[in-house]
């Protein structure tokens, strides 16, 4: 952890981080009624901070288990005066289960989840049928789930299990992948991958 991340954690935690374990009241948290978008595994928070800044009419909840990433996002929020983001430093599944009210989210973002390349580790992947069932409960009708990955096998797997879920419809006209929506900024990692000729697959599904 860098000194700046450590300082951000020491001084800004109470201002932006939410307590795990209680069901959130978003209107109270943000002091207004606005669409809520959840980002799972925001990494260093670069794209979450940018998206939140460009969409001041929405409120954002970020979840991350990597503390330096939380410190990084805290510092960015403060530096850039971003008021529409709150953070959970905790496991995303537990937060979804225990803290997010039913039918409260307008969108769920999952950008570049850990792919767990080896077959014997596939069971650690966050996207699985029980995850799809969980997010279906938390999204409002008409809300969306957006995943992006640079690992084709994972993209194919996400596609397969979401196509099998009757609560969702694929927003891709060809019923597979979508072009990157404008609200998803390109990360440095992704730009580097694209320069090296790697693919990226975006999947956008709407909750009925
Ligand atoms: C490959 S990184 C991608 C980070 C970021 N979304 C990006 O595009 O740069 C995956 C992130 O998901 C986080 N993560 C993995 N499992 C998680 C979980 N169960 N709950 C919350 N975050 C998780 C990891 O700590 C890591 O930062």
The CATH superfamily appears as Vaccinia Virus protein VP39
Structural class: alpha/beta
Mean pLDDT across every amino acid position = 96
Strand-residue proportion: 15-25%
CATH class descriptor name: Alpha Beta
| Shape label | globular
Strand element count:
7
CATH topology: Rossmann fold
Strand order of the largest sheet: 3-2-1-4-5-7-6
The secondary-structure element order is HHEHEHEHEHEHEHE
Poorly predicted spans: none
Q: What distance lies between the first and last C-alpha atoms, to the nearest angstrom? A: 42 Å
Bound molecule kinds, no repeats: S-adenosylmethionine
Number of domains: 1
Detailed description of the structure:
The protein has a single domain (3-207), classed as Rossmann fold (3-Layer(aba) Sandwich), CATH 3.40.50.150. The relative contact order is 0.15. A 7-stranded mixed β-sheet has the order 3-2-1-4-5-7-6, with helices on both faces. The chain has 208 residues and is an alpha/beta fold. It is globular and about 45 Å long. It has 8 helices and 7 strands; from the N terminus they run ααβαβαβαβαβαβαβ. The model has no long low-confidence stretch (mean pLDDT 96). It starts with a helix and ends with a strand. It has helices spanning 3-16, 26-30, 46-54, 67-80, 92-99, 129-138, 152-163, 188-195; strands spanning 36-40, 59-64, 85-89, 105-111, 139-149, 168-170, 201-207. The longest helix has 14 residues, at 3-16. Helix 3 links the parallel strand 1 (36-40) and strand 2 (59-64). Bound molecules: S-adenosylmethionine. S-adenosylmethionine (SAM) binds at residues 40-43, 63-66, 69, 91-93, 111-114, 126, 187, 189.
């Amino acid at each position: 952890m860098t000194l700046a991340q450590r300082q951000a954690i020491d001084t800004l935690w109470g201002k932006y981080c939410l307590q795990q374990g209680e069901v959130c009241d978003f209107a109270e948290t943000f002091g207004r009624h606005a669409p809520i978008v959840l980002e799972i595994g925001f990494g260093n928070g670069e794209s979450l901070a940018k998206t939140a800044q460009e969409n001041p009419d929405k409120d954002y909840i970020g979840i991350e288990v990597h503390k330096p990433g939380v410190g990084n996002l805290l510092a960015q929020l403060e530096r850039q005066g971003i008021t529409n983001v709150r953070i959970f430093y905790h496991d995303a599944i537990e937060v979804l289960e225990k803290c997010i009210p039913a039918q409260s989210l307008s969108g769920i973002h999952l950008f570049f989840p850990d792919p767990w390349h080896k077959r014997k580790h596939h069971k650690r992947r966050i996207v699985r049928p029980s995850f799809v069932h969980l997010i279906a409960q938390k999204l409002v009708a008409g809300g969306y789930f957006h995943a992006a990955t640079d690992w084709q096998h994972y993209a194919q797997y996400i596609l397969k299990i979401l196509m099998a879920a009757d609560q969702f419809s694929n927003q891709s006209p060809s019923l597979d992948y979508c072009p990157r929506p404008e609200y998803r900024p390109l990360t440095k990692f992704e730009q580097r991958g694209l320069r090296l000729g790697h693919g990226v697959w975006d999947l956008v599904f709407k909750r009925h």
